[in-house]
Each structure stands twice: as C-alpha cells, then as structure tokens.
Amino acid sequence: MKHLLVTAVAAASLILPASAEEPAPIPSPGEIAAAAPAGDWVAIAPSDLLVMELAPDAKGKPRRVVIQLMPAPFSQGWIGNIRKLAAAHWWDGTSVNRVQDNYVAQWGDATEKKVLPADLVTVPEQDYTVPAGQLVIHETPVRGATPSPHKPRGDGYAEFTRFSGGWPVAYDHGREWPLHCYGAVGVGRNMSPDTGSGAELYAVIGHAPRHLDRNIAVVGRVISGIENLSSLPRGTGALGFYEDEKERVAIASIRIATELPSADQPKFEYLSTESDSFVRYADARENRRDPFFIKPAGGADICNIPVPVRPVAAK
Amino acid sequence: MKHLLVTAVAAASLILPASAEEPAPIPSPGEIAAAAPAGDWVAIAPSDLLVMELAPDAKGKPRRVVIQLMPAPFSQGWIGNIRKLAAAHWWDGTSVNRVQDNYVAQWGDATEKKVLPADLVTVPEQDYTVPAGQLVIHETPVRGATPSPHKPRGDGYAEFTRFSGGWPVAYDHGREWPLHCYGAVGVGRNMSPDTGSGAELYAVIGHAPRHLDRNIAVVGRVISGIENLSSLPRGTGALGFYEDEKERVAIASIRIATELPSADQPKFEYLSTESDSFVRYADARENRRDPFFIKPAGGADICNIPVPVRPVAAK
Fold first, then answer.
1. Which site among B1, B19, B180, B210 would you substitute to test the A interface, given the most A Cβ atoms closer than 10 Å to its Cβ?
2. Which one of B6, B34, B55, B272 is at 20 to 30 Å from B19 when CA atoms are compared?
C-alpha cells in the first residue's frame, strides 16, 4: 500500500520528481511542472531572498529557511524595513518564540526591548492592498479562482482570485492583495492603526488563514526549509508561545542572500504563472486525472494550487 | 507586540479561552464558542473515539492522539474495519512511517507483511460518497459554503458545502461526502478499485487537500493531540517516508476509548452545528469584527470554520 499511495501523493508534490513506479498515462501536476521547458521557469533574484539560519537541531543539522520577498507593488514599505533589519543584522540572536498548531510560527525579539534601526518607516493600513490594474492580468484564469457566470465557483474571501507574476492574489472592490496561503510570511503587528515594523514575522504552517488577508501585511513566502518551522514543538502557552525561554529556537542570522558568500547563496526559480505549463499544471491541480484518482474535483481553492518553486540545478 | 498579536490569534483559537488582555466589545469566534450554553454542546460517545498512544517523546512525555470516528452514513464499511483492527490490537507495535510537510502523517505496518484480521470487509468505491438526503439539512448555511444567487461565493470542489451533525460535508450531483480538512483522518489505499482496508491511516497536517475528497475514504478527525503528529520530523524520503527505520515513531497502542479504564477514557464534546451558537460562531469566522481586525472577509472556506471541540470539564 505504501508504494502505491506514493503515486497518489507524488502528483500532489511539487518539488519531488514524479514516481517512476507507475508511469502515468495522464501526467500529474508535479510531472507537468517537471516537464516544463526551461524558458517557463523564472529565476528569483538573490536580492529578493531572505535567508534565515536557525540554530542547528539536536543532531547538529543546520536549519536554513529561505523566504522569497514579494515583488512590487505589494507590501513594499514593510519589505523596505525588512531589508534594513537584515542589513543591520538585527535578527541575529533573536528567536522563534511561538509555534501554534495549524496556524503560525513566529519569530523576533522575545524581550520586546531590542532597539530597532532608526530609519524604519511607518506603513499605513491602506498598503495592505493596492489599487487594481497595477498587475499583469493572468490570461488564463483558474476555474474556482475567477468568477464565471456559467458555473459560479470561487473564493470565499474575495470577488475573485488569480495568479500574477508568480503569486496568488485576490481582487475585490477595485483593490488587490496577496494571500495568506501555506508558507506565507506576514508582519506581526500591534492593534490598528499600527501595521507592524517588519521586525516581528510569522510564517503560515497550517490551513490558509485567509481571514488575515487585508488585515496584516503579507511580505513573502517560504520557498525552502519550511519544515524547520512547521515541525518545531508547539508552544504550550496561550496561542503557542513557548512558556519556558529555553524552548525558544535561536536565530543565528537572517540575511538578504546577496550578503552571503556567492557559493552559499541559494538559487531558486518558479514556474511562470503566465506560462502554458502553469495553465496545464493548475488545470491538473483542479482536475486530477493521473492514475490514482477517480473523481476530478472540477476546481480548487487557489491556496491548493501552490506555485511550483525549485532549486536551480547546478550548471 | 507579542501580547497584542495574541488578541488576533485568540479569536482564531477554538480551544483556548479568549484573551483576558483586551476584552473584545465584539466577541471573537473563540469567545462565542466559549460562551455557548451547555445545551449547545454534544458529548462524543467514547465508542466513537479512537485513542492512539505513540511512544513517549525524547523527554518521556506521553503522546496521545484522539480521533473522533465519523458517524453514519459516512464511510461505515471502513470504520467497521477500523473497529475490528483496534479490537484485535492490530496496530500495537506498528509505527508512523511517513510525515510529508503540508500534507499528511501516515501510520500502519511498515513491513506491509502483518496479517490482517480475517473478518475485514472490502468496501466499494461508491461508498466514498452517499446519496444526498440522508443528512439533516443545516438550517443556516454558511455564506461561501452554500450557493447564493445574490452573491456567488463558494467551494472550489463541489456545488456547495455545509455543516451537518457536527461535520463539514459537500454536495454535488445528488451525492454528499466528508471533507479533507485539517486534521481529517483518511484510509490509505492501493490503486483503484482497491479502497483500502483501514489498516493504513493518515491525518491531514497541512492545507486541506480537498482534491482527495471522493477519491479516498475519510473516516474521522483528530480532535486532540494532532501536534503529536504535525510536529514530527518530516521524512527525507520520497513523499515524506522515513528512510531510516529508526526514524519511525512507534505506536504503543490504538484502542476504542471504551476499551480503556474509565478513568483513562478521554471525554470530548463538540458545538452542535445546528445550534444558534454555531451559526454566530461561523458568521464570526467569516466576518471578523473583534478588535484586531479591520476588514471582515465576508466569507470563508468551510475548512477555515473548524467545528469547536473541547474536553468535557470534570464534574
């Protein structure tokens, strides 16, 4: 049973090569992504990668988490602050202080006393969203992620959602915003109108908490090493905060990848959401026709269509 | 920032009491559930609880996982097999063999050689769903979870979804079925038409893989101790299988709660999905008006409206 269940899940996996055990007459989403031509993949600039090194685990294994920062026009004020905090090495010596099951892992200064760089900006709440029309329109909307007069399926949180520039976005009432899908990285904040500086960050490690959309800034997504956050012990304090400071997971450093030695810089690429390969991939996520499946769903919520991201193969 | 972020998340938490730090003029979903009258809570029969005891963790801490088995009419053939396997103590000495990030934790006999009880039944594929009309209609459909001619929101995987008898269910083309939400427990299977015996089980530990609905049997949900599965190290083999058998997590026992000494039997209750309290709770999940929030979403996907479940307070 194990090996055959593999077949089911291989199709759901974006990073792993498709199982060689039962060649699928109809390709799985993972197989479609793996077969996409090189030209359909978009390299992520090292200047857009935030690299967090946690203290090694109990066995001495390094724990690196790589975060892709969101491109303009989204959340740029907070991202500017994050770049300043990384350049100042501000997070070095801070820690992961909270892990709440099916919700978030959160890191920053547990003492809440560490002085912030003086040049951080205050970002207004309207920047949680941007005026519509600044983004490339996705030519091939995902059923269930765009409204259809014929078959209303859709998104519970917005008029519609779509992919743009490699990211899932939502539209409603003339505004667009990024989504709290699994792996999304957001900015912890105080009560409104405080929108947070960017010094306190969290990553989503459970079912997409989309109710946070438009209420907290989304600044990026974990593209590698999320298991180093999602498999941490859950905190036993209220909301998953670690009650004993010895439970906190030390952060050795957080850097923009360009600050690392070039040999140590992570290199990733994502499947262009404007590519035909992505259209086929998204359709396959909505309608599983690979051998394990019996009933194609006929749709999917956009957070269940993760954009394929992979390491760039060494030349 | 930490304490105030607590406010945001307390509202999203179902088990924890609401934060006492900033009394909310408008109650959060968690506060609404906590304030529900005793009569709105439904006790879960111990005969419907499957109790899995994993080997203690590295610090010797017990690791119990409590699973609520699904009531009729769903998945009863597989659940009958699961009751026989538990009665035979079949799982004792087996292990958790696979943990794939943002997907599932899976347990059973890693050797795939352990002889199954002779009286297990073979369940046909049509039993993944049931004919509509066997379930109580929820009087107050959740917006986004039921079709609306005025404001089409909805479900990407079905004509509509709703709550019935304490469980989220989907409807399409005259059939209804249970959902793969976070914590759902399903039956691993071989290639179709094999539907699995129930000996190989998995729990969802990531974003709802709803594409598995109607393709695999859902037999229950983890109602306590899911962190003992979701925080396990991810397997480094294909699809999260543990490559080294020493990585496997031993299962000491799996029992129906009625087989445990009464003092050791877990006691839980869920908030009736037919109660007014649940209607208010679900509305609050869709429209967060508690102080931290600025923009109520106006909807939610059904897997982001988890049915409140709590331990029964000792009398």
1. B1
2. B272
Give the closest residue to A268 by CA, choosing from A31, A48, A35: A48
- Report domain extents, chain B: 42-308
Cα–Cα dist A296/B156, whole Å: 12
Structure-model confidence comparison of residues B202 and A314, the more confident one:
B202
| Angstroms from A64 CA to nearest CA on chain B | 15
ipTM: 0.90
The CATH number that domain B42-308 falls under is 2.40.100.10
Q: Which of B314, B289, B310, B248 is nearest to B11 (CA)?
A: B289
Exposed/middle/buried for residue B144 (C-beta within 10 Å: 0-12, 13-18, 19+): buried
Q: What is the DSSP letter of A40?
A: G
Averaged pLDDT, groups of 10, chain A, 315 residues long? 37 42 77 95 96 96 98 96 98 98 98 96 97 63 39 67 89 92 97 96 98 98 98 97 98 98 96 90 91 91 95 83
Tokens of B61: 């801490």
Verify whether the Cβ–Cβ distance B103 to A238 is below 8 Å: no
Q: Which residue has the tokens 């506060």?
A: B31
What pTM was estimated for this model as a whole? Answer: 0.90
Q: Among B103, B6, B101, B168, which residue's Cα sits nearest to residue A156?
A: B168
* Strands lying side by side in the sheet with B268-271: B41-43, B268-271, B309-311
Selecting from B8, B182, B189 the residue whose C-beta is nearest the C-beta of A207 gives: B182
Q: Do B1 and A155 touch (CB under 8 A)?
A: no
